[in-house]
Amino acid sequence: MSTGILGRSTRRRGRPLYALPSFQGTPSLYVLPSFHGLGAAGALGATVPADCWDKPGFKTCNEQGWRLAQEKCIAGGLAAREYGGDWARCQSEQAADYAYYGCVLRICPPPSAPRPTSSGGWVWKSSTPNPSIQTFQNHLNTCLARTGFKPISADGKLGPATCGAFKTVAGQCPELFANDPISNIGICQSFTNPTRVGETTPVKDPTSDEARKLDQQFGGLPWMQPDPRATPLQQGLNQQLTGHDFLPITQTGQLDAPMCGGMRWLDVNTGSQWMPTWGQNCKAFTDPRKRPLPSSPTGPVGPTPGPAPGPVGPTPAPSAPVAQSSMLLAGGLLAALAVGGYAWWKSKTGGA
Length: 352
Hints:
With 352 residues, the chain is mainly alpha-helical. Among the domains are: 121-187, no CATH class; 218-291, no CATH class. The chain has helices at residues 58-75, 78-82, 87-107, 131-146, 160-169, 175-179, 209-218, 230-243, 257-270, 275-278, 323-334, and strands at residues 118-119, 122-123.
């Protein structure tokens, strides 16, 4: 499935070398680079739900997409440049992109499906470094340097920074697909976009004029009013927040202060763009709360045992708490974040 109309780039379609995983639960699908050749029944599963056709505004939005696709494919020359002159296929695929990324994800977004946390020996946020992940990170850093981004930590642990870096630069570095088991990246639970050299904040998910016009057209969620779109969006938001070690927000089915606070935090700290699409009507913000770090179990205090029989030797030095290293790891993994993935919550929420 391409994101040609709402995304950044288009290329000649063809059989893909690899099937990309679905990055669900991340913001703004339509703002990502176009990964061609997946097709409507490909890895993304970006199809129009049957009940969406009857939602107010969907048919008008879909017709708008066909008109735009025709303009780009024929008058704009896209069919000649990228489709070998096949304007019918160009229009069909471009309009399908618009219908899903532009209309479905704003009018009737589907619920966020949970993703596995391990694949092919890769484990999401494992405390144990994996040499295969470290090799993948080294290749990513080569691509990041070439494209003007700061490197990520090549620590052999899959977290938001690694996932966000891949999401951002994979389309510009085909060697990533040739050298690494990128199918394992499908276990990414959250994303942190990389930071450009000379800057201090993660790069924003790309967008387009058409996407901004749609944002204005649909106007976001209404403030503190039940809306059928809110619950699936909150599910995707929670996937991002928990992936960054925050507590999930309550799924209230309406735009409220916790939802606005979560979206704002992700946009500022990860490069996602939830707020421009869904948070236009936010009137209050409650910042997300960090998930408490695990503490050592405590039990009832019993009597102090007496000295063991036998000769008394020197008192051994106290050992460091076992939980300390895991607590430091959890804190360190939090330091790198930024959103943007591939699947629906990119519908501008970065993911949404």
